[in-house]
Amino acid sequence: MNERDDQVRARACLTAVAEPGNTWLAELLDRHGAARVWTALAGGQAPPGTGPVNADAGPETHRAMERTWKQWRARAERVDPDGLLGASAERGVRFVAPGDPEWPGRLDGLDPGPYGLWVRGGGDLRNLCLRSVALVGARAATSYGEHVASEMACTLGEHSVVTVSGGAYGIDGAAHRAAHAVGATVVVLACGLDVDYPRGHAALFADVARRGVLVSERPLGATPRARDFLVRNRLIAALTPGTVVVEAGRRSGALNTATHATSMGRSVMAVPGPVTSALSVGCHALLRDHGALCVTGAADVLEYLAGEAGPEPSGPVRVEADLSPETERVLAAVPRTGAGTASIALECGGDLEGTMRALGVLAAAGLVERCAAGWRPTRT
């Protein structure tokens, strides 16, 4: 196992011991690397380094850090790295770490960012997020809100813009279903990808996985807690260049997603609703007090995001790609009729792991796409 594999393996294990979005752990990873941090935890050692990350922190903070590290060490004792990754693979769940071909570049600006992402589905996460918009809103949505979300997601999908949302009832579910009907969608969950939450969306999640993806910062078996939804919202905002709040009450979690989008300098849009509707109060507040852009349909969204997510008459998105010689050989080995990864690796003379990484790069560049046979050159 090489150094890169050690780092990825360690990050996967860390998702099983630490809560997503922990600032201290993010700093430890930046300073010392995941492998060293995990070795210290699994070995019952003190945090790596010569002292606390924040030397100016007071005694209370230091004691809190010590308690947190002790909790992580106790959880680390119960983690079997081979079992964690093996069980995930058996359920069709893969782990994507920073630096992997499938890792979305927009997440690099998120602080604190994910330690890694658990991904399930036939789509390529990075490729799907290249042209994407977050559609979020109330769980207890009105028929008006669900209609707007469905129409917007469907039209965006017809213009090759992928809808990203949180998989909840109401606006999220309406947006996912409409987007899936015409293309692919990305579902960001606050639980393990083997946990159907909400339970009523189990069939929807299974359908989405055929050509879209489900994403989570938490490993298999993790059930959602209240805080996890708020932490999850920052991921929805970070994956996309813009967030649309379709319908939201005064205290809706969708407003939390909009706040994260604003803090990252992303576009925030809101759909106006009836002035008598309590479920449009949040949208009106965004428009009145926070400078959100007013949108009444997909055409407005496409216009505001024209520089990043505007419509194309046909064909896939193309991004600039400076391909390595190895990646170029993989591209040359992909037949027009499509082939599986193993066949492509055999044709180009490479190993399976290297071929998989190259295909991820090519998919992100819009040069290859999934098909029934495996992979094929993108059709224009």
UniProtKB/TrEMBL annotation:
<comment type="similarity">
    <text>Belongs to the DprA/Smf family.</text>
</comment>
<dbReference type="Pfam" id="PF02481">
    <property type="entry name" value="DNA_processg_A"/>
</dbReference>
<dbReference type="InterPro" id="IPR057666">
    <property type="entry name" value="DrpA_SLOG"/>
</dbReference>
<protein>
    <submittedName>
        <fullName>DNA processing protein DprA</fullName>
    </submittedName>
</protein>
<feature type="domain" description="Smf/DprA SLOG">
    <location>
        <begin position="95"/>
        <end position="305"/>
    </location>
</feature>
<dbReference type="GO" id="GO:0009294">
    <property type="term" value="P:DNA-mediated transformation"/>
</dbReference>
<dbReference type="InterPro" id="IPR003488">
    <property type="entry name" value="DprA"/>
</dbReference>
